[in-house]
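Final report, closing paragraph on structural work. Over the funding period we assembled a curated collection of sequence-structure pairs, and we close with a single example.
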Amino acid sequence: MFCALTEALVSKKITYVGVKRIVFDEALIDKEINPYARYLPNEFSILNNLIDSVTRENGAEKIVPRLYLLGNAVDMVNPYFMAYEIDKIPKYGYQWYDSKRFLLHYPKAEQTQIDNKINNTLSGYLASKTLQGKSAIYNEFNEKGTGLIKKKPSNAKFYWGYKYKSFTYGIWQSYDGIIYISKKLPNSDNNLIYSISKDDESVNLIMAKRNESRFLFLKDAFYNGLIEYEHEQARNIFLEIMKIYGIM
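Its predicted structure, as stored:
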């Protein structure tokens, strides 16, 4: 049985017996090739709901189904890395997460494969001329954009936060003027938090506007190279927001 995740509702009406493997191909979206492609709202939950309907597990089965998520190293900001809190570019090889329930295999391309792709195929030759293409050939996550990955200093001052894709990040500034994007927030119920998209809106959040003075301040800091990030995921999410507001 093959279906798109958007057709999960149709697939739930079919009865499946003895399911051993569920394979989700192209789980990560290459936004450079298709900038209009988007992950589904609550995609991780939709996939989980589909698996529950397909397997009908009750915990007593002898056959334990396995889920395989297949994809290239193209996007750190995806529902699956977020669910398992993978916020740094993984090391090559195998790594366990979530008490050894989620195994990530990130293979390193062999140099002979790279040379063969570039020298003996037209697509490889063309891809070698662009940064995005090289990332595909070498199977490397493209660390696009500017900004260092650096831990927020303890003396940094919290200004406000923003919520995007269900995650909340804080905007902090150190005494030397550097802005830090961090998951850390003050332990307070009075933090000023903006929502970036309609999906993140709630009664306690303010919808961010392009001409909001705070975001104009961020824009200036971004163009002046004064923004640093807690990890790659924080950087990539921030760059997505900059695109939403027409800054990139």
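The first strand starts at residue 21 and ends at 24. The mean pLDDT is 83. We thank the funder for supporting this effort.
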